[in-house]
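--- STAGE predict ---
source: upstream dedup step, 1 unique chain passed
mode: sequence only
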Amino acid sequence: MSTLLLIRHGANDWVHGRLAGRLRGVHLNDAGRAQAAALAERLTAVPLAAIYASPLERTVETATAIAGPRGLTLQLVPGIQEVDYGEWQGAELSRLARHELWPGVQHYPSGTRFPGGETLGEAQQRMVQHLEAIRARHPRETIAVVSHADIIKLAVAYYIGMHLDLFQRLEIATCSVTALRFTAHGPRLVAYNDTGSLAQLIPTEAAPAVPQGTPSS
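--- STAGE serialize ---
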């Protein structure tokens, strides 16, 4: 089995205020740097074979905090960066919420294109394509992928079989970890939006297999 850890970058001054998108020059703030350091500590016992990141500064800085202590080379992948919001990029969220396309983005994302940008369906397809390529390079290994909130939500929706139009019901916090384990029976969501201990990702002695569908306490 291989496991993908989908990690959102740490906090920055644009979070909850403006739509940073793919703009350059958006760095972690003091809180974000503290989050990244704490994340690296939380992941200490999790064996990572590789670390991939979106090439934007806030993701690179978060991923570097994880990769540095392990001596791993950070691998940048443009295809896992944030959604292309086109003309919305850099705008204040309070202003965008009054835009005529806002209801479509929230409730009909499968049929809504950002002005001058991509659709969320296109973004989802792009992200999944690159995650599948990464996974193929690391069979039976655990890999960290540091990216952005919306694109992680889109990937999770795809792998758990959630319709794209419902993806806004998902939340991804800064420096949270969402883990997908790929088994012979398909992907399994084993951690979601986790900011805790991540104990479930630390390898233990092999336990007897539990039949699919067996209830557990």
